[in-house]
Amino acid sequence: MRYFIGNWKMFGIPSSHKILYKINAFFKRDKNNKKKYKIIIAPPFTLLHDFSKRFKSSKISISSQNCYHKDFYGAHTGNISPFMIKKLGINYTLIGHSENRASGENNKLIGEKISLALKNKLSVILCIGENKIEKRNKKTFSVLKKQLSQSITSKKYLKKIIIAYEPLWSIGSGRVPSKNELEKIIVNIKKYLNKKFRLKRKNIRILYGGSVDKQSVLNFKAINELDGFLIGGASKSSKNFIDIIKNFYK
Ligand code: PGA
Fold it and tell me: Is 124 contained in some domain?
């Protein structure tokens, strides 16, 4: 099963549900591929309730973009707990996106978010990735290992986590890793987690994110161990998002 996950970031108003209806209509028509992939869209908090109701009986799943790390309710102005998200009928949340890490979220906090999200029966899409300087200094894998080991603390957690490898230098920049570069990283992450948690490699799911569009997706078709994509900019248009899926299976 592959995943095509759209991260809308700070985008969308109530009428943006039209984008999802178009994606859903494509998915229903796309009989050949139905069993091969899953679509998840992460709109901002403001649209979660409406989208969750609208797409309840469709095959599209809705995800939150983040969640708070403690309590059901509490004196945490502006924050939303996993409990509150789950009660909307939502089953997924992104955690650890680099744009949230940039505003102060560290691996320990991200670990607390993961465990509370899982306790509330949300599946987690955990974002990891190195920045340009770390890449230049050949620190990519040590950065990824640290992000993984400090935030995933148990094998039972890992089963409910989809990892999204998103190099910071690629997000929104139009630059993507080469096929070989990406394949090596995906395989290395799987080997590392397989060794650490004794979980079969085929049960570890890793997506790629960063400037995925209908062109760049073609580079990655041949990577067997890649389990899908986390798509930012191109997920805000139904056409761009659908073209990615079409090109991937063409
Ligand atoms: P992008 O963003 O596809 O616009 O590069 C990806 C992400 O930040 O999740």
Answer: yes
Residues 48, 6, 171, 147, CA torsion sign: positive
Measured CA to CA, the distance from residue 244 to residue 250 in angstroms comes to 10
Query: Does pTM surpass 0.90?
Result: yes
Tens of pLDDT, residues 9-35: 999 999 999 999 999 999 999 976 667
Q: Is residue 93 part of a domain?
A: yes
- Choosing from 230, 235, 244 the residue with most ligand 1 atoms within 8 A of its CB, the one to mutate for a pocket test is 230
| Residue 139 maps to a domain | yes
Q: Which domain holds residue 62?
A: 2-8+40-249
Of all protein residues, whose CA lies closest to atom 3 belonging to ligand 1? 232
In a domain? residue 14? no
157-189 pLDDT, tens digit per residue, is: 998 999 999 999 999 999 999 999 999 999 999
- Cβ of 47 below 6 Å from ligand 1: no
